Structure formats: structure tokens, C-alpha cells
Amino acid sequence: MAGILAALVGYASTFTLVLSGLAHAGAAPTEAASGLFVVCLALGLLNTVIAWRRKLPLSFAWSTPGAAFLLTLQPVEGGFPAVTGAFIIVAVLVIASGLLRPLARAVAMIPQAVAAAMLAGVLLSLCLAPVKAVAEVPMLALPILAAWVLGLVFVRRYAVPLAVLVAAIEIGWSMSGSGTGLDVTLPTLAFVMPTFTLDALVKVALPLFVITMASQNLTGIAVMRANGYEVEARSPFVLTGAASAAIALFGGLTVNLAAITAALAAGPEAHPDPQKRWVAPVAAGFTYFALALLATLAAAFIAASPPILIQAVAGLALLPSLASALAAGLTAEETRLPAIVTFVTTASGITLLGIGGAFWGLLAGIGLMLVLRSRKPA
User: Fold this and answer.
1) DSSP readout, 161-207?
2) Residue 231, CA distances (Å) to 56, 59, 90, 225 in order
3) Using one digit for the tens of pLDDT, what is the confidence trace for 37-75?
4) H/E run at residue 255
5) What is the reported pTM?
6) How many CA atoms are closer than 13 Å to the CA of 331, on its beta-carbon side?
7) Using CA atoms in the order 264, 270, 276, 279, what is the torsion angle rounded to 10 degrees?
8) Which of 332, 333, 334, 263 is nearest to 10 (CA)?
């Protein structure tokens, strides 16, 4: 039950974000549906096979912060094929992190406060969407917010799925009045021929790699170790990188170790006996196989929705991530100023020399931290 719950909550909370992110990056509706379809298949395979073979509650998910990052992108030269090429570069870098320890150590050496602040800057604009939605479409946004608040009070884990449900009812009601319907056909694969450009490398691949490693992969390993499981990074990184490279050819977003839902599968909620918790990711995997069949319907749902409404639901789902990122970035006094510089630079959305704010935020924060440390008295 813990595994099924982890998959359902993870999917219902952020599938809108994945589809919106892919669409914003240039994917056509069929390509976005194909991307969600193959991501769910990959997660089904990774969760089921690895947990079954290794008898460990090792969980895998899509990169929610990565999807949020896609929504902040400025136009990329070469369109979605170039973004697909960037996904493949990210996958290769993740594989290299598993095979080459110096690369993994280099990523781990990025100051946690700066990485967290960069993530917070990426998430901020999306987390403002619920407030903007209330101003633009109050009759639609207020019921969604009310459902979310009631969920927080009575069934906290289901707060975002409840908000999604209310949004779906509102959209279904408006569509029934207009006589339009949703596409309920089975999803199909849409091949995307990748192209590799310097613009996509700098704008997409490098920031997405840092976000995936810092907020997902390294955090996922930390969650496992906190629950008493010693996990070496080599095989999970290589396997998720290989899976990400394969699904990128069909529009799929990068997959990685689960961070948030990992606690459900690896913690006492799954089973009192730590030796039996591996069943939870297996159950999650089979659930993802079933959810894969909903990809076309989900894409049609997004296409029929007012963009601000979908962004509002995604923003509600990302508020806990924003809070955690801000807390991690601003806790230590000695790194607080570099973290806030990283945060405001990233959140500004600036583009300099064709490079987006996430890269400059990371660079500014690390640079300021190095300068301040060099000025400390010996």
C-alpha cells in the first residue's frame, strides 16, 4: 500500500508539471504525451526490477524540480530536438557520475546552501502562480485553493491530489458545456531526433544536471542511509542515466532516484521490518505501468486547461519543495549571503550571453562564497 500510495501521490501531484514543462520546452502535445508515457514505463521498470533483484526499497521518480526548471526556460535554439539532445547529455553526465568518482565528488562539493538556493530561485516563479491565478480567474482558482487547504488540515498527503481533482472537475464541467471532449485513446510513442547545440548545453543540460544530482540523486541516497540502508551510488546512477538516455528519444524527461516519495517506501510506514520494505517500490513500479496508459488523457487534460490554472496546481505541489530549499539555503549564517545572491539571481530570470538565470545564480553564489572565504583571517 505504501508503494501504491507513493506512485499515485507522486503522479497526481506533478504530472501537470511534467506535461507543462515539456510543452514549454517546445514539445508538441503528442510528444509530451509520449514523454509522460515512456517516463512512467521507465519508472515502472526501474522500481520493479531493481527493488526485486536487490531486495532494497530503492525508489525512482521523475525530476520534479527538473520539470519546474523547464517551465522557466527561455526559447532554446533548435526547439525541442535540441532540448532532447540536452536530456541525453544530462543522462551521459549522470552515468559518468556513477563511473567516475571524481565527477560525483565534484557535484557533491557544490555547497549545499548554494544548490538549494538555486533550486528555490527556479521554483519561486511557479509558486507565485496560485496567487496570480486568484487575481486572474478567481472563480476557478479559489475552489482549488480551498480544496488544497482542507486537504492540508484533514488529509495532508492528499492535499495536492485533491486540488488536481477539483481542477479536473472544473475543466470537465467547462468542456461539457462547450461540447468538446477529451482524447481517451491509448498513448503512442513519438520519436524525437535529437540535436546537440551549445545553446541547449548551457541553458538546459548543465543546470538540469546540477538540479537532478543535488536535489534528487544525492538526496535520494541520503534518505536511504537515514533509514538504515547503505546504498552505493554507482549502479543507481548508471541505470537511471541509461534509462534517461533511452526515453529522451521519445520525449521523456530525466528519471532519477526518488527523494520525497523515497521516504514512504524506505520508512516504517511501508513495513515494520526493514527487510520487507523492498515490496513497496515493486508495488509502485506496477502502479506506474498502469498510470502510463493515462498519458494521452493527461496530455489532453492539460491542453484543455487554462495555462494559469495548471500553473497554479503545479505551484501548490511545489510549495513544500520551495520551503525546504529556502530553509536549506538560509540556515547557516556563513553561507546565507551567497545563498541569497544565488536565489535572487536565479529568480530574476535574466538571460546573459544566451545563458539563463540558473547558471548565473550558481556561478554568482559560488563566486561570492569563494571571495568571502579568501578574505577570512587565517
Assistant:
1) HHHHHHHHHHHHHHHHHHT-----SPP----------HHHIIIIIHH
2) 9, 12, 22, 7
3) 999 999 999 999 999 998 888 899 988 888 888 988 888
4) strand 255-257
5) 0.74
6) 10
7) -70
8) 263
